[in-house]
Automatic annotation (TrEMBL):
It comes from Corticibacter populi. It comes from the Bacteria. It holds the Pfam family Glycos_transf_3. This is Anthranilate phosphoribosyltransferase. Residues 6-67 form the Glycosyl transferase family 3 N-terminal domain. One of its GO terms (biological process) is L-tryptophan biosynthetic process.
Length: 343
């Protein structure tokens, strides 16, 4: 017998796990709007309070993937996503979005999955629009964009239509829930490689194991000890790495790579326009903490994409992509392609 919503709620109250097949059934009911908003809110709150297990997260992500509008990429082997859960409260400029252009310029392909702002003043979709990128391409056009430019931006609401049933509930609740950690696990292009930032240290081990169960190839899940959901310049960064079927957990520090430490205050942005300006400055060769954190994260993503042997080699390649002007040109390519294909 499938689990009922009432039974699921009782499990969370008793701090007991909802098993994989039960969670699949429950998540389909939630995503299809077959459970009342009140009961949905109660269940996701109960899951948060008891702490979601790897099994529950994996099952829920499987359903989100199942219900998504997918992007079919011809050769996804070296495709990488660079994504964060948000919710870190740092109000940083769009580091992973800026890194996307650097990564593509350095020879990897990026399927960037993102939405509007969560905790920053500017989400990846906000800044992509400010840069002139058309974020509303059809799945086939996004696949073309990846092939032509090395970048495909997937605006999350366009690919997860079932989220419309939970979006008002999430907005009214106004607290983190399982949905904050599902988005980064549900790349519509099925990128097998990922650099994922998370807002809590406990999520490093949880998310990397969820990615393993979901079939990821090479994943780096990171959390800066200063709270940043990126590889940080302000502290050591916790890393959970999945590679060749093995999981390792370790710490890295910016000084390991010859980078100066810098506070998150130095990379704040108060609006999509300010984030756009900072992003362009980095791509045009400006030095400072914004550049350093971009090359650090691009280096991590190039390693996840198996373009280089380690993060240090990735950083060197990222610097070259910026200094040669290739990263700046990559932005222009994406803007031109997305505007032309949608015309």
């Amino acid at each position: 017998m499938p689990i009922t919503p009432q039974e699921a709620l009782q499990r969370t109250i008793e701090h007991r796990e909802i098993f994989h097949d039960e969670m699949l059934h429950l998540m389909r009911l939630i995503m299809n709007g077959e459970i009342s908003p009140l009961m949905t809110a109660a269940i996701v709150t109960g899951l948060r309070v008891k702490k979601e297990t790897i099994g529950e997260i994996t099952a829920a992500a499987s359903v989100m993937r199942e219900l998504s509008n997918k992007v079919t990429v011809a050769d996804p082997a070296n495709l990488v996503d660079v994504v964060g859960t948000g919710g870190d409260g740092a109000h940083s400029f769009n580091i992973s979005t800026c890194a996307t252009f650097v990564i593509a310029a350095a020879g990897a392909k990026v399927s960037k999955h993102g939405g509007r702002s969560v905790s920053s003043k500017s989400g990846s979709a906000d800044v992509m629009e400010a840069l002139g990128v058309n974020i509303n391409l059809a799945p086939a056009q996004i696949a073309e964009s990846i092939e032509a430019t090395g970048i495909g931006f997937m605006f999350a609401p366009n690919h997860h239509p079932a989220m419309k049933n939970v979006a008002p509930i999430r907005k009214e609740m106004g607290v983190r829930s399982i949905f904050n950690i599902l988005g980064p696990l549900t790349n519509p292009a099925g990128a097998p490689n990922i650099l994922m930032g998370v807002f809590h240290p406990d999520l490093v081990g949880i998310q990397v194991r969820a990615l393993e169960r979901l079939g990821a190839s090479h994943a780096l899940v990171v959390h800066g000890k200063d709270g940043l959901d990126e590889i940080s310049l302000g502290s050591s960064t916790l890393v959970g790495e999945l590679k060749d079927g093995q999981i390792r957990e370790y710490e890295i520090h910016p000084e390991d790579f010859g980078l100066a430490m810098a506070s998150t205050r130095t990379i704040r942005a108060e609006s999509p326009e300010q984030s756009r300006r900072m992003l362009i400055d980095v791509l045009e060769g400006a030095s400072g903490p914004a550049r350093d954190i971009v090359v650090l994260n691009a280096g991590g993503a190039l390693y996840a994409a198996n373009r280089v042997r380690d993060i240090a080699e990735g950083i060197a390649l990222a610097r070259e992509a910026i200094d040669s002007g290739k990263a700046r040109r990559k932005l222009d390519e994406l803007v031109q392609f997305t505007q032309a294909v949608a015309a």
